Amino acid sequence: MSTVGKPITCKAMVARAAKQPLELETITVGVPQAGEVRVKVIANALCHTDIYTLDGHDPEGLFPCILGHEAGCIVESIGEGVTSVQIGDHVIPCYTPMCCEAQCIFCQSPKTNLCPKIRSSQGKGVMPDGTVRFKDSDGNDIYHFMGCSTMSEYTVLAEISCAKIDTAAPLDKVCLFGCGVSTGLGAVWNTCKVEVNSTVAVFGVSSGSHCSIVLLLTSFLAQSNWLTSFLLVTNSLVPSAWQSSKEPKWPEHPKSSPWT
Ligand SMILES: [Zn+2]
Ligand SMILES: [Zn+2]
Description:
The chain has a 5-stranded antiparallel beta sheet. A 4-stranded antiparallel beta sheet has the order 1-2-6-7, with no helix packed on it. The longest helix has 17 residues, at 207-223. Helices cover 20% and strands 22% of the residues. α4 (180-191) packs across α5 (207-223). The protein has helices at 48-54, 119-123, 171-174, 180-191, 207-223, 237-244; strands at 8-14, 23-29, 36-44, 71-78, 90-93, 134-135, 141-142, 154-158, 162-165, 200-203, 230-233. It starts with 7 loop residues before the first strand and ends in a 16-residue tail after the last helix. It is α+β, with helices and mostly antiparallel strands. A hairpin with a 5-residue loop joins β6 and β7 (141-142). It is built from 6 helices and 11 strands. It has 2 domains: 8-171, Medium-chain alcohol dehydrogenases, catalytic domain (Quinone Oxidoreductase, Chain A, domain 1), CATH 3.90.180; 181-244, no CATH class. The radius of gyration is 21 Å and the shape is globular. The structure holds zinc ion (2 copies). Residues 98-99, 101, 104, 106-107, 115, 117 line the site of one zinc ion. One zinc ion (ZN) binds at residues 47, 49, 69-70, 179.
């Protein structure tokens, strides 16, 4: 039976309050309004930002809310005026979506991707029209989170928050493009601007860190016939490594670097 045009009752993990365990609840997900897309969430990853908000550190954290912003989804239905995706498309929700409009100075600038189009409503836990699409079993509102709220079987996104992907891509793996992979990519290519012959230390063991390593390896292997030195410093290894030697030995560089 088609669910198009009807509210959907489904399960979601609801964050009722800071520092409290998530609650598995039956919720209602409203019909997508103009410019919105309702998706079935197939795969979810857990990001530190979800924990950060649940722990009460996020100044924009609102409760009750549905956390989650790293997912692989299938479009269930679309609201009025939506043209970039259709029912059945596979999408990755984006928490920093770009409107790409000609008059948006942020989207038109090569220096940033921080488009303000829906940023203010997103930060208030609501859809761009100022209302929510989630209701709990008592009919009370539940806030959205980062414009994604993917810890639910169904969620509603702004159209610009949907990145359409190839349906052949496995959603349980490409869900990491929603945050971890893009964060690692941005760290390597945009923030650090790592170049061939650099010696790189990657701190942490998150999906972003792992992705940084994969990107570094693939980028440099593609550009040169030798491998840049890598030192992976995990949170757990740092203290013992430093305790074992007052002057830790860094890997020797394979050849002279433009940086040294
Ligand atoms: Zn994240
Ligand atoms: Zn924009």
